[in-house]
C-alpha cells in the first residue's frame, strides 16, 4: 500500500509556508521528486487543493494548473488516471471553464463513445457527445 498525501501538505508546499510545521517539507517533496518516497494523491484531494489555492489564497488558476502539472511529474507522486488529470489541468489552463467541467471534458475526450447529460451548451464547443435529459 502506498501512503496517501493530504491537502494541507500540498498547499503548504505550493505556497511556500514558513510555518514551523512545514519544517522538512522541502526535503519531503524533493524525495518525492526523485522517487525515493512515494505517495498517492487522490482526486478528491487534488480538487480540494485547487479549491483552497483559488478561493482562500487567491492564486490565479494558471499558476495553480502549472504548479500541479509540475507536481504530477514527480516520480514519487502517484494518481489514478494521470493522463486524464493532466489533460484536465491543461484544459483548465487554456479555457475559461471550471475545473469540474474540464475533468468531464478530459474523460469524454478520452472515451468519445460516452455521453454527457447536461444543459450546458458550452460543452458543444469541444465536440463531445452531449445530450439534454
- Class per helix and strand makeup: mainly alpha
Could you list the spans in which at least 5 consecutive residues all have pLDDT below 50? none
Global shape: elongated
In terms of DSSP E residues, the strand content is 5-15%
The helicity comes to 40-55%
- Give the neighbour order of strands across the main sheet: 1-2
Encode the helix/strand succession as letters: HHEHHEHHEE
The number of domains: 2
Calculate Rg over CA atoms. 16 Å
Number of strands: 4
DSSP summary: helix tally? 6
Largest sheet: 2 strands, parallel
Terminal CA distance reads 41 Å
The average pLDDT score comes to 95
In words, what does this structure look like?
It is a single chain. The protein has 2 domains: 1-80, no CATH class; 81-133, no CATH class. The chain is elongated, with a radius of gyration of 16 Å. It has 6 helices and 4 strands; from the N terminus they run ααβααβααββ. It is mainly alpha-helical and 133 residues long. It has a two-stranded parallel sheet.
Amino acid at each position: 500500500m502506498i501512503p496517501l498525501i493530504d491537502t494541507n501538505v500540498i498547499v503548504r508546499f505550493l505556497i511556500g509556508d514558513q510555518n514551523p510545521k512545514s519544517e522538512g517539507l522541502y526535503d519531503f517533496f524533493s524525495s518525492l521528486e526523485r522517487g525515493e518516497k512515494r505517495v498517492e494523491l487522490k482526486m478528491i484531494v487534488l480538487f480540494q487543493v485547487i479549491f483552497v489555492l483559488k478561493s482562500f489564497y487567491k492564486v490565479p488558476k494558471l499558476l495553480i494548473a502549472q504548479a500541479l502539472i509540475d507536481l504530477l511529474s514527480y516520480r514519487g507522486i502517484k494518481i489514478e488516471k494521470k493522463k486524464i488529470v493532466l489533460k484536465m489541468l491543461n484544459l483548465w489552463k487554456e479555457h475559461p471553464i471550471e475545473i469540474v467541467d474540464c475533468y468531464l471534458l478530459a474523460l469524454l475526450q478520452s472515451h468519445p463513445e460516452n455521453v454527457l447529460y447536461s444543459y450546458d451548451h458550452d460543452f458543444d464547443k469541444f465536440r463531445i457527445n452531449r445530450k439534454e435529459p
